[in-house]
Write a structure and sequence with these properties.
The protein has one domain: Ribonucleotide Reductase, subunit A. 68% of the residues lie in helices and 0% in strands.
Length: 329
């Protein structure tokens, strides 16, 4: 009970700074980009030419690419799950509209544009079976996710610090592949989404830095606990129509690894970056248990690298209902 009360006190203390975080890391709705800025403008006379160009550029992209892009889009579209999860953290009063709930709502507003943009692109591209994609999105929202954080803000912020950087990497790499194939529209779209994810990563990373100042031992234990459980991807429960929960995730993940969009080595690199930014190895004045957690975190990247070097990624592409094998629906 004492630990829970300390967490609540820390959240209430940091809350005074949250409006500043919103100004620093988020952009007002009237100023930030919107999906229509990235897509063909149907109010212009040349809208058909714009759509034709989009569809022609889309023909140059391979099967694994479409699987990864669909998986990324569906992950973004499951936003209701993520908002309800963050709103349930200790210290967030969603009914009283405190600054923490304001942050979550503004963050959600920014994230909401990502799924909208990619969804419209996929629809216009004509390269995927949108009915099957929509069923997958529906299932992912229904199935939810359990990432091992509970209502604990410390664990929640470790997860978001990690996951926002992971999505930044994924969208950025997809954008580069699109650019290399001559798809300027999709490349711009993915890169600007990646930029949003980086801003969000920097914010959540700063939340954790601040918590380390107030409650270092408990923050260290929370970080170590999340890494022992492993950071589970938001799309962990991915499935297609008629499939069991989580039955499509491994194949999606393998496609991402084959393309080099997001790999085991990226996971390890993110951990190393967080360790370095939070200066984990330099933390002192910790409880005995927290010192052990610190030592575990410092050694973990090298341990994971030894394992990763022995892991092989399947090279065969499994069939997805989202995309026909020849890339034409």
């Amino acid at each position: 009970m004492a630990t829970k009360n300390i967490r609540l006190e820390v959240m209430q203390t940091i809350e005074k700074e949250v409006d500043g975080y919103i100004d620093k890391y988020l952009i007002p709705a009237d100023e930030i980009w919107q999906p229509t800025d990235m897509l063909p403008d149907f109010q212009k006379e040349d809208y058909l030419e714009q759509v034709t160009q989009l569809r022609e550029e889309a023909k140059e992209l391979g099967y694994d690419f479409w699987i990864v892009l669909v998986g990324d889009m569906v992950t973004e579209e499951a936003l209701p799950t993520y908002e309800s999860w963050l709103m349930d953290m200790e210290g967030v009063d969603q009914h009283g509209r405190n600054s923490w709930s304001k942050w979550v709502r503004h963050w959600t507003g920014e994230e909401n544009r990502h799924g909208d943009t990619l969804n419209k692109y996929l629809y216009l591209s004509g390269r995927v079976n949108m009915k099957e994609v929509e069923i997958t999105t529906h299932h992912l929202i229904n199935d939810g996710f359990e990432v091992g954080t509970g209502r604990d803000p410390y664990r929640n912020f470790v997860y978001t610090s990690f996951q926002e950087l992971a999505t930044n990497i994924s969208h950025k790499r997809v954008g580069k592949i699109a650019k290399d194939k001559g798809n300027k529209m999709l490349s711009k779209m993915c890169n600007i989404i990646a930029g949003d994810e980086m801003r969000h990563h920097l914010a959540y990373r700063e939340f954790v830095s601040t918590i380390f100042e107030y409650d270092p031992s408990e923050m260290m234990l929370a970080f170590a606990d999340m890494m022992k459980k492993k950071i589970i991807m938001p799309a962990q429960n991915l499935r297609m129509s008629g499939g069991k929960m989580a039955s499509a995730f491994d194949d999606f993940s393998n496609a991402a690894q084959r393309l080099g969009v997001y790999t085991t080595f990226d996971y390890i690199d993110i951990l190393e970056k967080l360790n370095a930014h939070w200066e984990i190895s330099k933390k002192t004045n910790l409880t005995d248990e927290a010192e052990k957690a610190r030592d575990f975190l410092v050694k973990l990247p090298s341990r994971m690298l030894r394992i990763a070097d022995r892991v092989t990624v399947p090279q065969d592409t499994n069939y997805f209902k989202w995309v026909e094998p020849n890339g034409v629906v």
